[in-house]
Structure formats: structure tokens, C-alpha cells
Amino acid sequence: MKNAISQRLKEVRDKIASVCARVNRLPSEVKLVVVTKAAAEEAAKEVIRQGEIELGENRVQRLSRISSQISDFLQSSDENEKLPEKVNWHMIGHLQRNKVQGVLPIASLIHSVDTLRLAEQINSSAGKLNLRPKVLMQVNTSEEAQKYGVPVGAAVYLAEQLFSMPNLELVGLMTMAPLTRDKNAVRACFVRARELFVELKGEQMARASFKELSMGMSADYEIAVEEGATIIRVGSAIFAG
Ligand SMILES: *Cc1c(COP(=O)(O)O)cnc(C)c1O
């Protein structure tokens, strides 16, 4: 298992580097979030041994459990193992308002803010906990009826509301492409997200920290990097097989 994971991880890293070279970007401009949702605990530890420190989960219960397992692992490691001091957890999946309080102390970035009500909950819980979480606004860039994500037409308005909230920091956008083999349809979604991202960057309320574009998964991260992703979220390409 160990070798398989390090091999697949290397393949992903190599592909990121070669796409970046082709489109004149630096690999350091693309943050790889390793999505551990379908990984065994041992497998998650293995990617950390390989130097990965950005990890993602899409469900709160699982995020709580695995993040505490991993922090035990990091603390108990012996001196022969050169492990990072800590890892950063990304909450990438749909977030219910009643789960916000549990996520805030764990997540370094919440990718999935797509309604005003959720944002208000984050803002008020964060205020009570004396935190100021970084969040991304999830945008529905595909024409098909996606369950989550603010429609493109409503995105500027919601972003302005997020920018004005004192206890959270809107640092960019997240999107998911439709599940299809049609690469043009996938690319069109990523282009739409980038255009919206550029538009919002130009907003008066946007700060310098508004700089992240989270898009691309195992099936489509190369297209996402071509189209300007600064964060990609990859699971099965590393853990399945
Ligand atoms: C599971 C998941 C991913 C990773 O998907 P893979 O196809 O396994 O790479 C990325 N983003 C979100 C929101 C997910 O739920």
C-alpha cells in the first residue's frame, strides 16, 4: 500500500508540474488538497509521511474523527520519523448550519459557503469562539441542476454580503464541474468560475487575501490547473486502485 500511494501521489504531483510548465505557471501556485474521505487511516498517514499537509474531508463527523486521529499520530511520532508539526484541514463538502460550531476549531478553510444563512451562522459562531475563519464561496457554474453552490447570477450579491461580515474572511471561490466525460463542458465551468473570480477581485470590498480558486478533482484537475486553479482537491487518484 505504501508504495502504491507514494507512486500515485508522485504521478499527481508530476502531472501538476507538467501542466504548469505547459501553461507558464509555477507548481507552487497550485495547492494540492489531498481528499482523505475514502482513505483508511493508515493511508492518510502515509500521504503525511510523504510530506502532504493539506488534507480535505467532505463530512463533518468524519472530519472530526480523522483530524483527531491524525493529530494523535503527529504527537506520538518518534524521532526517526520526520513528520510535519501539523496539517491543515479543509472542509470541502456541504455544511449544515448546526454543524458549523464543530467545524470551526478544526478547519483551516471552509470551501462550501453557498447561502447567506450559512454565512451568517459561521459569522456568529466564529464571533463567539473568537475566530475568524477563511472561507470560499461555492458557485454552481454548471447549467445542470446541481444541489449546492450559489447560482452565478446571484454570486456577486452574496459575495458582497460575505465581504462585509466581520468574523469571517472570504478568500476566494470554489466550484465543482459536472460529472461528465465532456471535457468542453468541464472546461466551460472552470472558465466561468475564473471569470467570476476575476470580476470579484476587482470589487472595491475585495482584499488582497481574495486570491483562491478551488476547482479540479481526480478526473479534471489538469483542466482546472490550465484554467487557473490555485487549489485542487484530489482523492481517488491517490487512494483508489
Ligand atoms: C470527494 C471530493 C473531492 C475529491 O474527489 P476525487 O474524485 O476522489 O478526487 C473533491 N471535492 C469535493 C467537494 C469532494 O466531495
Overall description:
- By secondary structure, the protein is an alpha/beta fold.
- It has a single domain, classed as Alpha-Beta Barrel (TIM Barrel), CATH 3.20.20.10.
- It has 9 helices and 9 strands.
- Strands 1, 2, 3, 4, 5, 6, 7, 8 and 9 form a 9-stranded parallel β-sheet that branches.
- Helix 2 links the parallel strand 1 (31-35) and strand 2.
- Helix 6 runs parallel beside helix 7.
- The longest helix is centred in the N-terminal third of the chain and has 21 residues, at 2-22.
- The radius of gyration is 18 Å and the shape is globular.
- Pyridoxal-5'-phosphate binds at residues 35, 37, 58, 92-93, 176, 217-219, 233-237.
**What is the string of helix and strand elements?**
HEHEHEHEHEEHEHEHEH
Question: Which percent range fits the helix content?
Answer: 40-55%
User: Which structural class is indicated by helix and strand composition?
Assistant: alpha/beta
The tally of strands reads: 9
CATH fold assignment: TIM Barrel
Strand content: 15-25%
- Main sheet attributes: strand count, strand direction, barrel closure: 9 strands, parallel
Name of the CATH homologous superfamily: Alanine racemase
Number of helices: 9
Q: How many separate structural domains?
A: 1
Give the CA-CA distance, first to last residue: 10 Å
Radius of gyration: 18 Å
Mean pLDDT: 95
